[in-house]
Here is the input.
Amino acid sequence: DTEVTQTPKHLVMGMTNKKSLKCEQHMGHRAMYWYKQKAKKPPELMFVYSYEKLSINESVPSRFSPECPNSSLLNLHLHALQPEDSALYLCASSQDVPRNTGELFFGEGSRLTVL
Amino acid sequence: GENVEQHPSTLSVQEGDSAVIKCTYSDSASNYFPWYKQELGKRPQLIIDIRSNVGEKKDQRIAVTLNKTAKHFSLHITETQPEDSAVYFCAATSDRGSTLGRLYFGRGTQLTVWP
Here is the structure.
């Protein structure tokens, strides 16, 4: 299984809603990532988890809250988002961050629209 | 931090022609350079990568070259086909120091192959 699975594929939410994005991988990878991608732009790193611990937070606003319940799962909790947060949110995993020079496997993404 | 520049931003070629996309990086500590292809509405997928101890790598119609002295690397696609049409992202990272866990992307090249 070389898949990173993300749910939901599409999400529309109001600025007062609370929702979560979910990501799952069963490749035994110990590093998991959240990226944000706007149209025609490269992915922007948001968070990195290494061995279920948050190792990088790229100064992301607190309305985005990541969680790594176990080595296979990664969540992104969303609260009080702004319309400019509308984007494709990509989850990715890799074998190991300390030897990070290895392939990132991306999920298909969750397309988020904030009204 | 690392800065990756990518050119051109758009590239149109006739089917069967070659396509070349060039990237430069700023951090001499970077030692891993992947290339990702992202088709419209799809996830980024690794197509080829190169490490700093190698000058060139080839995989069928795709090749990547790396010049560490000049800090640039290039993607070469030969005998292009319409299905090669996509956005291509170069990236750079290091397995040590403050860049650990961060993949620095170029801005992307929209490649269009005309039949």
DSSP finds no helices and eleven strands in chain A. The mean pLDDT of chain A is 91.
